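Entry 14. Structure prediction run on the chain below.
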Amino acid sequence: MKNLFIITGSSRGIGRAIVFALNNHFSKDNNTFVLIARDVEKLSQLKEKLKGEVIVVGMDLADIDNVSYSFEEELSKLSKDFDRCVLINNAGIIKPIGFLGKVEGAKLAENIKVNLIAPLLLTNSFLKLFENSNCEKIVINNSSGAGRMPIVCWSAYCASKAGMDMFSKVLNEENSKVKVFSVAPGIIETDMQKDIRSTSKSDFPLLDEFVRFQQGMLKTPEESAEDFVKLIKNPDDFETIVSF
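Output returned:
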């Protein structure tokens, strides 16, 4: 089988773990990886460890004026002759953390750009580019339980993830040729958790609760990556909104 795997935020954390999990589980297939992140050096190092064709795309997802153009330019170089085409909108940021009225407006805007607008743009371009392809099309959005319940001082993050859930539901309703999932992967030990734990309690009253998560309550990125592989292998077994 010829697979195309496109993963944003693939230089670290869950994204990097997903890349390795796909490389392992589909090692007998003919795979093309499109790795997207800001850190091109880390992506290039990752490239050397993968089997198959690997395309490295340095992209700042907050630069929404160029996201669609850069993405479409890179993918237009590829053959559309794939059996399975998968877009994983994994990249995300938690900051700013703080009470509305006390955070920087520019940081709020950056959060929404990276977490919601960029995935919308990438999904739009992905569907446009592969509209006439007969490949199985799968879009997986890395959402969060924070998009399904309010968490104080996370206004932008909660809003962006709720938006990701909703755009996934809409896509599911309007396009029967794509399988779309919005995934709350659980609480994972990544740099995002470190960012949360480094926040002052005055900016995040729930800090102690998140510090306690370190006591055996956090999944590893590798464990989370296996859940994403399950979706790709068995998409008919899952509804659009998924919690692991």
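The two ends are 27 Å apart (CA to CA).
Filed with the rest of this week's runs.
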